[in-house]
Design a protein that fits this description.
The chain is α+β, with helices and mostly antiparallel strands. It has one domain. The protein has 2 helices and 4 strands. The chain has a 4-stranded mixed sheet, with helices on one face. A hairpin with a 2-residue loop joins strand 2 and strand 3. The relative contact order is 0.27.
């Protein structure tokens, strides 16, 4: 078994982290090819299936989830972030990993001025499943 999947969660609501050029949902270009991309795709599918299925952009909702350099980037409301965090804790427990990843795993803004916006729900959070 390899190392854990890296993950990053943006803030909630209108806040969050935007990486890349917006656009419709999911993967940047083409089908996943590297093992890292395949694992990220599986994890994203699991999360969007297990947590508030109809709230994701692909199902007509507003939440987005994508992969960027081995990180899972989620832009959703605070409640859904908490639910995703709980699913990741369960997955870590099932894999025999510490449930609380790097608890200080807070990540600062990825771009200058990309901190929490008005109406956001706190700073971006870094998670490692």
């Amino acid at each position: 078994g390899g190392g854990g999947m890296g993950g990053m969660m943006g803030g909630g609501g209108d806040g969050g982290i935007m990486i890349g050029g917006g656009g419709g949902g999911g993967m940047a270009s083409g089908p996943p090819q590297t093992e890292e991309e395949i694992r990220a795709e599986r994890l994203m599918h699991l999360l969007t299936t297990a947590v508030k299925q109809d709230s994701w952009q692909d199902m007509g909702g507003f939440g987005t989830i994508s992969e960027y350099k081995g990180l899972i980037v989620i832009n959703h409301n605070a409640r859904t972030h908490k639910d995703v965090e709980n699913v990741l804790k369960m997955l870590r427990g099932a894999a025999g990993l510490p449930e609380s990843g790097p608890e200080g795993g807070m990540m600062g803004p990825m771009m200058p001025g990309a901190g929490p916006m008005p109406g956001g729900h706190g700073p971006p959070r870094g998670l490692r499943p």
